[in-house]
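Bench log, entry 3. Co-assembly request; chain sequences pasted below exactly as received.
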Amino acid sequence: MTDPAARARELDAQDALAAYRSEFLPMDPVAAYLDGNSLGRPLKASADALDTLVRQQWATRLIQGWTDEWMDWPEQTGDTVARVCLGAAAGQTIVADSTTVMLYKLARAAVAARPDRHKIVLDRDNFPTDRYVLEGISRECGLELVWIETDPDEGAHPEQVAAVLDDDVALVVLSHVAYRSAWLADAQAITRLAHDHGALMLWDLCHSVGAVPMQLDDWDVDFAVGCTYKYLNGGPGAPAFGYVNQRLLGEAYQPIQGWMGRHDPFLMEQGYVAAQGIRSFVSGTPPIVGMVPLRASLEVIERAGVEAIRAKSVALTQFVIETVDSWGEPAGGPVRIASPRNADRRGGHVTLCRNDFRAVNDRLWRESVIPDFREPDGIRIGLSPLSTSFAEVAHSLDVLRGQLG
Ligand SMILES: *Cc1c(COP(=O)(O)O)cnc(C)c1O
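Structure output for the full assembly:
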């Protein structure tokens, strides 16, 4: 490889999405941000939209805001997520709750829709909240957890899922992109396998939504859940989204029966009667403030297009891998690339491992280069295509290289 800084200048010059960087608020004194897959950077449009919400809609419309438009935001914003990012038709997606709570609601709805089955399939390296939520559901509903032992540098392969499926499996829960390795699961093939055994499939899209194109309707996915504060730039604690295939609306019911998911909530009636359609997956008052930056960001992502975002994402991760490969055997020992080398199986980040990387990560933060550290020895280089330049990545890797004593 030619000098990484020179290569980065070339790649930035060819970058069709380069102009989008100026739509984000400045981040100085941070020199390089490699965590857009964990907390996306704020857009200028989000700051403006929040100001408008507070000063105009909230301040002057007050409670009328609910009937003006806020009441419909869970479905309306969900439909936008579906159209822009999920490859899903309207009427199947809502924005509400946190990912953890939404995952619980959808997984409970799924197992309740398969009452004669007794197993949930999951993998050992899924994100902690996914494992913990399913452990709780297993205890609560008396279901057995069937663990797939995934390679931490990869993730669930279709053959591994096939090996544990049988006609007693109610639900399979996996991440589309693994939070540690960035393994991109073959969601279509795995969904088909689950269906061949009569099981339901729930995909966690936290690390793929907004970075990897998907076709939930065509893949016939049953349920999906995802974050909006990672690649969707919704801001700290922004609400989650949940997708329920329309086939299952009217068959699958979530467990947190709040007034906002009831048919005609303002009748304040006795007895819960689920609302029609995806609205029945809402529980309480919609997090309006939390949806404002997300709505602004979805407008930008739609303009850029997820296909173009994915193309840049692949180029960014490829650039990281090529640069690290060009180091050969640095002082202190080789850096291991703990992410798939095959771009078709790789999401939007690259994890680099070495046994001293916890200390190295601390030193990078002191240099205003901000990746994140993942136990036990991984520095995760997250690359959010709309806000990250190749020069920023080249600088970060140069600083990292300088720390490899
Ligand atoms: C980030 C992430 C979550 C986060 O859940 P919260 O309820 O928002 O804290 C869940 N699952 C996966 C796979 C994630 O990457």
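The pocket of pyridoxal-5'-phosphate is lined by residues 98-100, 127, 129-130, 175, 179, 204, 206-207, 227 (CB under 6 Å). The chain has a mean pLDDT of 97.
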